[in-house]
Amino acid sequence: MYKIAAVVLCLLLWVPYVHAQKQPDAPLQPKIILRVHTTPDDAPRLRNYSFQVTHPDSAEANKEVKSLVYKMQQDAYLLTSADSLYLRNDTLHVKLFIGERFEYASLRNGNLSEGILIESGFREKFYRNVPFKPAEYVKLQQRILDYAERNGYPFASVWLDTITIKDNKIEAALMVEKAFIVTYDSVQVMGGSKTKPKFLMRYLQLYPGQPYNQEQIEATQRMLTALPYIRVTRPPQVRFARDKARVYYFLEDRQSNQIDGVVGFLPDPSRSGNKLLITGEANLNIRNIRGTGKSIGLQWRRVNKGSVILNGEYLHPNLFGTPFELGTRFNLLKQDSSFITIQPRLQLGYYTLKYGKFSVYGEWRNSRILGDVSTQSLRNLDLADARTTTYGFNYLWNNLDDFYFPRRGRLVELELAAGTKTLLRNADLEKSFYDTLDMRTTQLSLGIRAENFFRLSKNSALLARIEGNALLNDQVFLNDMYRLGGLTSIRGFDDYFFYASSYAIGTIEYRLFTAADSYVLLFYDQAYYRSDLEKSEASGWPSGLGGGISFSTGAGIFQLVYSVGRSEQQPLSLKYSKIHFGITSKF
């Protein structure tokens, strides 16, 4: 029986083998060989060019021939042509004529103005006894046309005049016809936006009677993206009527007016038994009031027990019909029962088409010590009554693709300020205490913020951000310093947990978008800070990490962020984790 089983097994193994032997071999893919024939004079010129010899079919081989001809024509062999092509067996034979190389004998300035010469970079000496390459001539043409389009001549044309060719040497005159000058007529807003054309015209600096500028029209798209209250639905269109240009912008209003609140739960060190301290924040922002671009904002925050922040802001664009923007700010900080600081600011900004927004400002800071502060704190030079007047410069450049939910783009902000700080005498201290202090000192401050959004995929983006500030003064007090910690700086710590005279914070944040206005985030914050108090210097490297979610609901945008932090004062522990959640209602 086992012999029969062995025979059957052998048959089962042998039959597939025999069947495989009988299968015909797969047909080989045909190959086409490209063979180029030239005259003896053209053969040395062809050696300078490489091309693919083997191709899968004759169509691909024909494409290679056309590419070779185009390459040689662009290299000044203007008469290059494939005179004949014929296929024999597996070989495509091509008879290629190359001819002599064409050169400029001279290219004269026909009627180009001095402005065109400077902007286009044209010089007659650059076009003597050099190869005539069509691509380079086209680039020269385009530079001249770009200059004309920027200066009110969108219908200009450029050509070569009085052309003579002798022994493959080209002589010609470069001519330009500007046609007629075109000026702006008006700006029109299309779509459902309530934005006034008059405001838009001044913001984008498209004034009636001003020469048409194509580059300016393209730059206005970036400027519109920086406005939080409108959405661009289509690229702008320009309609020409005789010598006038009317610009149409397709805009929709965004729900940018904001009323929101955030509630935070933190451990309360002043109470026993794992009690929680409830902190909060409320915001009110009204933007694009009556379609004029004006906005007003108000913010209230309770960061810890007894400490309150109140911020206000008003922006007035197109001041007296100019492109300047007037801004005012008011900041108030009451730090428990230690001190209170009031800080108003007046700022004048100017938007440019290419380089963002430049601003100058004046700031008046008044910090007073409250009565509950101990005299010992004053003697240790931790706190002081002071009045500071500073004047500064701010620069902001922004090309983010969306104001609220960016996925690609870059934002850079720089600030520099200088001023004078004057100490004010405190009645609780004897007059001799101030004999060792400089009552009037010069103070400098520097600031930088840079953000870059990298789009990783269709629904995800990576944010890389660094920001820092430095306060430079020989006498720095606790109530002069920057305050760090919390949801807007180093996450994982209480609001205003750190005092710093200088600091830097780096952030990496991954966002996975589940909708156009909803995403899940993971982040890591790494900071360095330094506190330059005269009798108690300190520094540290705090870090925070966590995640969160932001999504739209019928009532607004709900936000939840969970974070933990690590520093010399706080270990990395879930016991010290922070939870912030709130809802942003926009209308």
UniProtKB/TrEMBL annotation:
Any idea where this protein resides?
Answer: Membrane
Q: Which keywords appear in this protein's UniProt record, sorted alphabetically?
A: Membrane, Signal, Transmembrane, Transmembrane beta strand
Residues forming the Bacterial surface antigen (D15) domain are 288-587
Principal location: membrane
Q: What protein name is recorded for this chain? A: BamA/TamA family outer membrane protein
Annotated InterPro entries: Bac_surfAg_D15, BamA/TamA_POTRA, D15-like
Which residue numbers delimit the POTRA domain?
Answer: 183-247
Q: Has keyword Signal? A: yes
Q: Which residues form the signal peptide?
A: 1-20
Query: Which Pfam family name is an example for this entry?
Result: Omp85
What organism is this sequence from?
Pontibacter populi
- Entry superkingdom: Bacteria
Keyword check for Transmembrane, yes or no.
yes
